Amino acid sequence: MPTRLTWGDLPDTVHARVEGVLGERVVATRGATGGFSPSTAEIVRGVSGRAVFVKAVRAVDNPDSIVLNRREADVLAAVPGAAPVPALLAVFEEGPWLVLVTEAAAGAVPELPWDAGQLDAVLAALDELQEDTTPCPVPGLPPIGELLGEDLLGFERVAADPPADLDPWIAARLGALRAAAREGIAAHGGDTLVHGDLRADNLLIAGDGADGRAGAVRFVDWAWASRGSRVADAVQLLASVEDPQGVLDVNGRLDAVLDRHGVPREVGTAMLTAILGFFVDAARIPDSATVPGLRAHRTRRRDALLATVRERWDR
């Protein structure tokens, strides 16, 4: 993981402007965990106990983060107030810094390995989110195929230059996997607001309710937002779930999502195959200086997702 900037790294002028949004002096901070951006990701709390979430970065820290954080600000400004998304309170530039201030949503990231009840709560919240954001309410967002299509053509690059550690199951089916991945990219199309980077560390789940079930879910970090299929985020989330013992029945849950939205199950398989192609290809790319640890993350995701995809193909 990259080393994140912290509240202490921000200049006094940024502190002052954030305190202006908060309406009081900041007396405590708490950093968030996870993710691959060097941006600050901190809850800052004032003297009265009121808190906001602050994300700040400079181009010198990571130029891509500036672009992505601007997109996130556009999304948060346009989503309906009822959507399970933190409200944008302010976005401003102060010298080289781009700063987003949002409400501090209640809850914590889900603990891994996933709890079945929390996973089901997130999938149910995704259905609600897509009800609120179809058609896509954010003008100018690119289609997900335009934003991620090249990444999802990983099996094409693997076929042209196979890695030395290519799994034999993949090698024996590479032509069919390439064709399925192209079908999966096409199936991502639609006019729903898509988060585009949905995994555990981009979710907050409030404490359990009185009945023992997971509480309210909030979807955070909208830097990769786009327009696409109503099932795209659920497919991506389930593609990230590691379930070596099979207790979460990832494929069963994916089939239930596809059935609810009237999407053929083989289409879900093709979408998963495209995501797998990305990780098979990307797992061989060396880490960059600004995002260390990414290669190990991608390798782990590749291996876990391969088991899920194999199950769907073999059945």
What can you tell me about this protein's structure?
This protein has helices at about 10-20, 65-80, 115-130, 145-150, 155-160, 170, 175-185, 230-240, 250-260, 265-280, 295-315, and strands at about 25-30, 40-45, 50-60, 90-95, 95-105, 190-195, 205, 215-220, 225-230. By secondary structure, it is of the alpha+beta class. The protein folds into 2 domains: about 5-105, Phosphorylase Kinase, domain 1 (2-Layer Sandwich), CATH 3.30.200.20; about 115-315, Aminoglycoside 3'-phosphotransferase, Chain: A, domain 2 (Alpha-Beta Complex), CATH 3.90.1200. The strands form 3 sheets. Strands 1-2-3-5-4 form a 5-stranded antiparallel β-sheet, with helices on both faces. A two-stranded antiparallel sheet has the order 6-9. The longest helix has 21 residues, at about 295-315. The model has no long low-confidence stretch (mean pLDDT about 90).
Summarize the structure.
The chain is an alpha+beta fold and 315 residues long. It has helices at 12-22, 63-78, 116-132, 144-148, 154-160, 168-172, 174-187, 232-239, 250-260, 265-282, 294-314, and strands spanning 26-31, 42-46, 51-58, 88-94, 97-103, 192-194, 203-205, 217-219, 226-228.
Outline the secondary-structure elements.
Layout: H1 12-22, E1 26-31, E2 42-46, E3 51-58, H2 63-78, E4 88-94, E5 97-103, H3 116-132, H4 144-148, H5 154-160, H6 168-172, H7 174-187, E6 192-194, E7 203-205, E8 217-219, E9 226-228, H8 232-239, H9 250-260, H10 265-282, H11 294-314
Antiparallel strand pairs: 1-2, 2-3, 3-5, 4-5, 6-9, 7-8
Helix pairs in contact: 5-7, 5-10, 7-10, 8-9, 8-10, 10-11
